[in-house]
Amino acid sequence: MNDKILKNISMEDVLELKELVSYQDGQIVSRTLVQNGAVSITLFEFDTGEEISAHESKGNALLTILDGSGVITIDEKEYALAAGHSIVMPAGIPHAVKAASPFKMLLMVVFPAR
User: Fold this and answer.
1) CA gap 71, 32 in Å, rounded
2) Model's pTM, two decimal places?
3) Strand (E) positions, the chain?
4) 26 conformational bin, left if phi > 0, alpha if psi -120 to 50, beta if neither
5) What one-character-per-residue DSSP string does 54-83 give?
6) Tens digits of per-residue pLDDT, 37-49?
7) Are strands 95-99 and 77-82 parallel, antiparallel or unpaired?
8) 63 closest CA partner among 36, 38, 82, 37
9) What is the pLDDT of residues 79-93, one digit of tens each?
């Protein structure tokens, strides 16, 4: 089934994930690698000050900073993360993401079995 296959990414190539999204002034850029009922994997780029406001997800989300730094808010508690740091945002808990500097992240969301 096509919806379970990686997309927007080269196969069998050595990749530097942070190079697959480019910084753009005043924007958030995303590149979806997988999107189906079980998992979502997306690369994001945020310009300084850009943010995704508080929301909840039906799946547990693992966020890894690839470049730069951001502030992740989970249930009103703020976490300052920089390149190489990861955090899990639990399902059903409000969370938000804001760029402290231009930054890139990999977001992997795993949804519960139906």
Assistant:
1) 22
2) 0.91
3) 28-35, 39-46, 51-55, 60-67, 69-74, 77-82, 86-89, 95-99, 103-110
4) left
5) EE--SSEEEEEEEESEEEEEETTEEEEEET
6) 899 999 999 999 9
7) unpaired
8) 82
9) 999 999 999 999 999
- pLDDT at residue 3 above 90? no
Output the six-digit token pair for 35. 């999107």
Give the span between the Cα atoms of 103 and 48, in whole angstroms.
Answer: 8
CA–CA separation, 100 and 69 (whole Å): 6
Residue count of the chain: 114
Is residue 44 within 8 A of residue 21, CB to CB? The reply is yes
